[in-house]
Amino acid sequence: LKSPIHAAKLSAAFGFFKWLLSNRPIWNEYTMAATRVFFVASAAAALSLLLLALWTVISASLPETPPASASAHDGFTVWRDQGCAGCHTLAGVGGGYAPDLTHIVRQRSDAHVREFLFNPGAFQSPNSSRVMPRHALTADEARALLDFLRWISDQPHTQDFPPAPLLILADAAPPDAAPMAGETPTSAAERGRALFSLAPANCAACHSLEPGVTIVGPSLAGIAARAASRVLGQDAQTYLRNAILYPSDYVVEGYADAMAKNLGALLTSAQVDDLIAYLLTLG
Amino acid sequence: MMPETTPAYRLFSLCLALLVAAAVASLWLVARLIGGDALIEVLTYADLDRLTAALLSGALHSGLLGGGLCLVAAHGIDAVWARRGVRLWAGLALALPASILLDMRLDAPLLALHGAAMLALALWSQTRTRRAGGLVVVWAVGAALMGVGLLLAAVARLPGGFFAAAAWAALADGLRTQIGAPMAAVALLFWLMHRFSNITPAWAGRGVYVCGGLVALAGAWQTLPAFYPLSMAELLPTVGAVGVVIVPACAIIIAAHAYRALSDRNPTATLAGGWAALGVVALLAWGIIGGLQTLPALYRWTAGSPVWELSRGLAAALVGAILLGALSQTAAELRSQRGYPPRRIIGLLPFWCVAGGFIGAGLAWGAAGIAEIYLERAVGIDFSAVPPLIAPLLLLCWVGLAGLALGLSLAAVALWARRPGMIEMMKD
User: Fold this and answer.
1) pLDDT tens digit string along A9-63?
2) Is the dihedral of CA B343, B354, A86, B174 positive or negative?
3) Cβ-defined contact of B384 to A76 (cutoff 8 Å)
4) Tell me, what's the ipTM?
């Protein structure tokens, strides 16, 4: 090794370690230039590697995969805007707080997923402390989200994620599948359920259906069982009707008298009946 | 009269304050995972996660900007405009967590502003210090890559397909957290090493180029796994798998450089060496854990799990430790406390609390992640049944984070209590 240049030509790695372990002045001029070149080359190689990866995703693979429908595209917008990736993973992308949903549409029926989106509290396992927030999606948004999840599940390169099918059993039995709001409900309870989260009633803005979760007013989980014993002389149906039309008559202990007083003017008597029918199903 | 403090000192102070807040938010986050959080309806897990990340980002960005000003100032250039700019930056750094708490959904534009500020300072430093040598160059390239990454993060939110958006987001995240921030931190590490050890400025100038390049390579390879599931190209996992050798090797070579300085300390005896050593521990763990996950067969199991989060957390820990070292080394001079023993500015207790907390929390989090993957994906236990099973490990992680938060809080209190005005008051 007669000169530093010769040494570097023989073996860059060997020269580097030799330089690292020695501090001879003879190396100084050469290594300053060489290290600068090494830095530029490494940074360029690193960026090239990442740009290559980006290119393979954007241009190389997509034409071979099933294209996303307009509805699936809308579903991706819902997924992104609702921040679903903060908790759930799709094809390895996202958070680990909640189950991976890459192939959820193969494990659950559409009706089940839509019901879950409407009322996640009903599926809450008593053994799990992890709670899914209620996102109050419209029927169109829920449908688009399902289309998006179906599209993801069909992509050839997502088949390996996750490596083993995840079990999402949950102890709590989901309620029977029922049509979403906006899908022509047939029974009074179904119409009431739709009204619960839609104008003009929009009860869901203040009342949760998850046990112990307070938004503004008390949770309505299990209200059917409590209603009959709330006010002496009032059965469950009478109590609920009074609570909707004359909320100041009885205010649940620990809560302010903040409920809207004009529901009697906003709702028809049939709508009030529907709401009561729905609330009586929340045993 | 209070001695004048520099913009770099104010940025370091802001960094420390935000690190304390980020540590407290992390405690809340892990408590949420354990299940003992009574405030679950106040802030969802996703929002809490975003809040923690925003506080940590604000802290690291502020500290790295402060470090950059220190490097530039070492070349005799006084950034006069920075005195007023610091207040603007502080507002910007605090706006991101505030927007999350107020549910204003301004993450993307605020991150873009962060990126623009980083990019602007990087370019300014290059125009003013063309012959400044490796430290400023490597810091500026790191800061510029962070700036580009932050700007890309805003682009990634524009309308587009899932895979394209995920790829842009992976690129942005890699540039920011795996390449840019560690590279800028390595520049600060060499600047610190030159100050607390007997290595020569010329050696530091050469070493920073080598290590800056190695960080770029290690960071790029660590970013690649995020692209594996997004593409059908088989080339990508094949190239990525080489990272299992390259990434740890890069980390070991950088650590060897640091060892040379740590084993030949000068008599200044500040605690910067200790913080630098902690940063090197984080760097080695980052290299080994991140390197292993470049294997496609392994990444399939760790994607979206706490183990994947760990390698990103270690990159942040590496940067944070070096920033605390820089603060420890320079606090006295940055606030004109000449003659004050720099070792006492922050003290040993916060260092050991942070070091113990970081190592304990990191080990427990990694163990919890491995246990979660095994139980959920290998054994096939119901998703909802796994959290109670790994709760003891998460509890250990919480205890470690509590130590870390305590250490950072003690450091902040010490920095405040030993400010020049207070010491003069006590002397009187």
Assistant:
1) 666 666 665 656 555 544 454 577 888 899 999 999 999 999 999 888 887 555 4
2) positive
3) no
4) 0.89
Say if CB A149 and CB A112 are below 8 A apart: no
**Across residues B156-172, what is the average pLDDT?**
82
Does the pLDDT value for residue B68 go beyond 60? yes
Pull the structure tokens for residue B237.
Answer: 């996992």
- Euclidean distance between CA atoms B60 and B312, whole angstroms: 13
B314, B282 in Cβ contact below 8 A?
A: yes
Amino acid at B182: P
* Residue B314, both tokens: 């270690």
- The encoded tokens of residue B302 equal 């760790």
Single-letter amino acid, residue B191: W
Enumerate the β-bridge partners of residue A89: A94
All residues of chain B having their beta carbon less than 8 Å from the beta carbon of residue A20 are 253, 256-257, 260
Contact B69, B7 (CB under 8 A): yes
- Asked if A163 has any chain B CB less than 8 Å from its own CB, the reply is yes
Among all residues of chain B, which has the CA nearest to that of A95?
A: B304
Instruction: Let me know: does A92 contact B167? Beta carbons within 8 Å.
Output: no
**Measured in whole angstroms, how far is the alpha carbon of residue B24 from the centre of its chain?**
16
Distance separating alpha carbons of residues B188 and B318, to the nearest angstrom: 11
- Residue closest to B411 by CA, chosen among B313, B328, B338: B328
Q: What is the CA radius of gyration of chain B?
A: 21
Contact check, Cβ <8 Å, A46/B217? yes
Helix (H) or strand (E) holding A90: strand A89-90
CB B18 within 8 A of CB B319: no
Q: How is residue B279 written in tokens?
A: 């940063």
The chain B residue lying nearest A211, using CA atoms, is: B41
Given a contact cutoff of 8 angstroms between Cβ atoms, the answer to whether B29 and B52 are in contact is: yes
A29 has a chain B CB within 8 A of its CB: no
C-beta of residue B27 within 8 angstroms of C-beta of residue B401: yes
The SS3 assignment for A199 reads: coil
Give per-residue burial for B159-176: e unless 16+ CB within 10 Å, then b.
Answer: ebbbbbbbbbbbbbbbbb
- In degrees, rounded to 5, the angle at the alpha carbon of residue B145 between the alpha carbons of residues B144 and B150 is 95
Q: Using CB atoms, pick whichever of A80, A100, A164 lies closest to residue B380.
A: A164
- Residues counted in chain B: 428
Nearest chain B residue to A40 by CA distance is B213
Say if strands A93-94 and A89-90 run parallel, antiparallel, or are unpaired: antiparallel
Q: Are B46 and A83 in contact (CB under 8 A)?
A: yes
- The average confidence (pLDDT) of chain A is 78
In this prediction, residue A3 carries a pLDDT of 62
Residues 6+ apart with CB under 8 A from A54: B167, B168, B171, B227
Torsion of CA A202, A207, A211, A214, to 10 degrees: 150
For every residue of chain B, which 3-state class applies, written as one string?
Answer: CCCCCCHHHHHHHHHHHHHHHHHHHHHHHHHHHHCCCCCCCCCCHHHHHHHHHHHHHHHHHHHHHHHHHHHHHCCCCCCHHHHHHHHHHHHHHHHHHHHHHCCCCCHHHHHHHHHHHHHHHHHHHHHHCCCCCHHHHHHHHHHHHHHHHHHHHHHCCCCCCHHHHHHHHHHHHHHHHHHHHHHHHHHHHHHHHHHHECCCHHHHHHHHHHHHHHHHHHHHHHHHHHHHHHCCCCHHHHHHHCHHHHHHHHHHHHHHHHHHHHCCECCCCCCHHHHHHHHHHHHHHHHHHHHHCCCHHHHHHHCCCHHHHHHHHHHHHHHHHHHHHHHHHHHHHHCCCCCCCCHHHHCHHHHHHHHHHHHHHHHHHHHHHHHHHHHHHHHCCCHHHHHHHHHHHHHHHHHHHHHHHHHHHHHHHHHHHCCHHHHHHHHC
Q: Which CA distances in Å does B390 have to A129, B229, B289?
A: 13, 27, 20
Phi and psi dihedrals of A90, rounded to 5? Answer: -125, 120
